[in-house]
Amino acid sequence: MKVAVFSLMMNLPNAVTGESLTAQQKFHNVISQAVLAETLGFDAYGVGERHGAPFLSSAPPVVLTAIASRTTRIRLLTTVTVLSVLDPVRVAEDYATLDHLSGGRLEMIIGKGNDPRHYPLFGITEEEQWDSMEERYRLLKQLWTEENVTWEGKYRPPLREVTTFPRPYQASIPVWHGSASSTRSTELAAKFGEPIFSSNAFHPQAKYKALIDHYRERLAYYGHDPAKAVVGAGSGSLYLGNTTEEAIRRYRPYYTAFSATESAKHNQSPFHSLEDQIENGPALIGSPEKVIEKIMNYHEAFGHTVLSIGVDGLTESEQQEQLQRFAEEVLPVLRREIPSRVWESGPVLAGEETAVLSES
């Protein structure tokens, strides 16, 4: 299994120490976290997108570019790009630029996002989110793969003979489809034969499994081999302790603080306590053995070969402690027990595909 560390850059006073970071300090914290993730051997680092307090992640390509300048190997993900509200021309240009600056390490995860505040901010209604995302994604793919694009749609002005620059550094920037609540996302992913990434954060396993199962069914419908489906999944919160009891005790103040935020209330999680969330949800709170057991249980249900974990909100020393413990005590077992071919080879760069075909 491959593992990505990700951040939504939520900037709240620390639930244990009361310490508050300035915006600049939080940006540096996230960059340092990504550098540490690469040093510890994690496979990818992701930055989400939100457009309102307490999140500072309104410009993922800018933050990921800063991370790219400090790292050399780790893949860079968007977790997620809220494409339902963005101009595909701007997205094509920004992320193609990041693709060059990272040496082809970019992979995009697209989604409609789960914060309703961004819809009025960018001029669409919540009812339009799925239609908007599909139209914008089709245009984005066209802009990345074709030149002199002429296009007309509902959610941006028409284009005539447009070629965006720079062209992507990779022959094709990999795109995953974020999956959280609707078959509209899994349908779109299956239609294009592209991977999905289940959020798997706030609800019981069965909800997310139903969407993943739908994705595989629709892959077959569109003529793709469901046995080759690539699935990633989130994991809720992470906190490792020497015992599960210790992990629960140390994490409880963070759980209480997170549960009180407006974003947590919006997610309408059915779990009524931390213990309930650990027992019946995806949270990875416990001893390394218990956490491994839970991940294996979810893998059996989902068949995913990429996992994302997050340590936002903890003190900086705890972030380092948790990532190091996961890398040393959990990651080796996952790699041994769950083989994954994702990210096994380097990126295919523009022009290389043609060269390979001409040699065959």
Automatic annotation (TrEMBL):
<dbReference type="GO" id="GO:0005829">
    <property type="term" value="C:cytosol"/>
</dbReference>
<keyword id="KW-0503">Monooxygenase</keyword>
<dbReference type="InterPro" id="IPR036661">
    <property type="entry name" value="Luciferase-like_sf"/>
</dbReference>
<protein>
    <submittedName>
        <fullName>Luciferase</fullName>
    </submittedName>
</protein>
<dbReference type="GO" id="GO:0016705">
    <property type="term" value="F:oxidoreductase activity, acting on paired donors, with incorporation or reduction of molecular oxygen"/>
</dbReference>
<dbReference type="Pfam" id="PF00296">
    <property type="entry name" value="Bac_luciferase"/>
</dbReference>
<dbReference type="InterPro" id="IPR050766">
    <property type="entry name" value="Bact_Lucif_Oxidored"/>
</dbReference>
<keyword id="KW-0560">Oxidoreductase</keyword>
<dbReference type="InterPro" id="IPR011251">
    <property type="entry name" value="Luciferase-like_dom"/>
</dbReference>
<dbReference type="GO" id="GO:0004497">
    <property type="term" value="F:monooxygenase activity"/>
</dbReference>
<feature type="domain" description="Luciferase-like">
    <location>
        <begin position="10"/>
        <end position="304"/>
    </location>
</feature>
